Queue: 3 jobs
Job 1
Amino acid sequence: MLFGWPDLYGVGDYCIMANRGADTNPVGIDDVLRADQGWIEVIEIQSTTNARYRATPNGAAYRYTNPARPTEYYLWSNVQNVGEWKPLAGSGLLIWHFDKSISGNNPPQKLQLAVVQGGGTRVLSATTWPSPGSAKTDFFNKDVNAELGAMTTPESKWNDGSASGLRIYDIGPSGPTIEFSVGVGLITPEGEGGSGGLGGTSGAGTGGVVANGGSVSASGAGAPAAGAAGAVAGGVAGSGTAGVTQATGGAAIAGANAIAGSPSGSHSGTSGTVEGAPTSSASDEFGCSCSTVTRQKSESAFTLALAALALAVSRRRRRVLR
């Protein structure tokens, strides 16, 4: 067997190891087998992932693995009926279900590698040599089936009947780029959802979360970014298009658009969301949302400075009079 790949009965025209699709233009190798050889990038989706992605033909594939049995997983990618895939009757997200605990593909039994048909049927996996070998309803897209989850048809269960927790939803129209979302929670606006991703908590983020005008933490796995004003004395980092940050407990005292950094200056989100920030009535003329304790300290320091200046002037006058 080539690369140890089995004959894929019950898969139709979706792999050269199954039907050939056409005599003069046989179909290619499916993305499960390509991923097995390391020929394409694979983005791992977790049960905690809440993100939106863009899938492109011959781009990354997305894999969701059974934590109880790592040899079982769902894998999907964008397959368009052009080039070597021109014989296919449709296009969109093609979703596969792989389970190594099953020995090969022997229709109509459960298959080791099966196409999850978007239309909810088992026409392919129930037939050794499906004819026709493809249909528009085999794909997931906005016009056929825009979601795969626990309550959909088909559903995203594991082969033992247990819930997988996988939810792929809000799948866009079929095309060179297909957007889709993954997860059961809210997608946060800051950050990117990983390689090929648009937004969410699963990948590298560009924005942090700013809380109470001072503390900054990176969202998800977001990478910290230095603010426009840079780090100043005391280790404070601020961000914003205007203004300077002052090293007093993470307080920003200049620039209406400045965001106060954390005292360590280790994280500063350039597109973070503000939580629990005071109202405009609580801010001073510099746009600061500092605490009253910091302001009281600043006022005390200012009073001491004035007293020292007055004492210096008084001593100088005495010398002149002498």
Job 2
Amino acid sequence: MKAPPKAYATRAEKTQDFGIGFLGWFVGNAALWCFQSTLLPLMFLPISLLSRSGDQNEVAAIFGIGLSLLCGILVLAANIGVPIFFLIRRRWIGLGMLGAIAVSLLLILLLTAACFVLYQGQAAPRPP
């Protein structure tokens, strides 16, 4: 039997859940990034340490690339699936996660635009 979505009684509950979703998205992605950048290389380290021939080095490289690709796909699936799950179950947590994604994309867009503006001034020397 499916449990019904949470019914919010006050605005404070909505605000609290929105904040949990907003901050939780950043904390969750920071934890995933830490896992990928620290623990993931250690998973295929024994293969590369034990290998002596070129074939085993290629196997270690292919294993590492495949594992990295798999982790990237899982992170993408989590960043799509978890907000959808919370939009169904606890709407304001899901909206907080979508808000965090929107803020992140906006910051990326602004930083990219700033880099283009700064680079354009240095692209060609100005005539005297």
Job 3
Amino acid sequence: MSTNEMKKALAIAARKPENQKYLLTWEQKQAVQKFVREHGQRGWKQATRRLWSRAIAFEPHEQLVYALRNTHGPGWLIKVRVDEHGWVK
């Protein structure tokens, strides 16, 4: 198997089905909810982008929200929606 074929195979294996791409653990959901409550329904995504850009998270829930950047990427932040209680839909 050539190097290019190996890279393609690894890339295909790493892909997740679209419906599983943005699944969160219970702890991640709780962290997002707390973050939404702290920053409000309208400001939490902007606060998340700020957190991601400064790369400093002090509180445990901020650390989990920051880690979402690495595990779920910026696409997650664009697509994610929360309900009126701050829970991820």
